[in-house]
Amino acid sequence: MIVFDLCCAAGDHRFEAWFASSDSFADQQARRLIACPVCGDSDVKKAVMAPRVGAKSNQLSVVAPARPIDAPAPGAISPELMRQVMADIAAKQAEILPQSRWVGRDFADAARAMHEGRAAEDLIHGQASPGEAQALRDDGIAAMPLLVPIVPPDAVN
Ligand SMILES: [Zn+2]
Asked: How far away, in angstroms, is 44 Cα from ligand 1 center?
């Protein structure tokens, strides 16, 4: 599951939508299956991401849950339900974060090592560039954006 910030061409309304993959988004966008929840315009594109609190400018905060957090398939979900689901996921992430190990910039390597069995399964969170996060998803490695703001321990000094 991947979340994109989208905006419509007609009114520049911003909204979030979940997709199974980037390809799935591109496909639905090309077929104009994604409509703005405010005005119904189907000419939507990715919005420029707002910087996340505590993250370095070009870094995403990501978490690799040992057990995937359940999220419904995208598509026939109303914006209200989606907001509820997002709040749900954020609450679950806030709950698991204290047990999660901060790995900072080693996130991509650490997640890959666990995926390939070179390291014990663990709950980790850290930072990855958008390219690294995409590469992880391409390899089927569970990594999802953190919906709760975090302050990296190494950003305090
Ligand atoms: Zn709109």
From this structure: 8
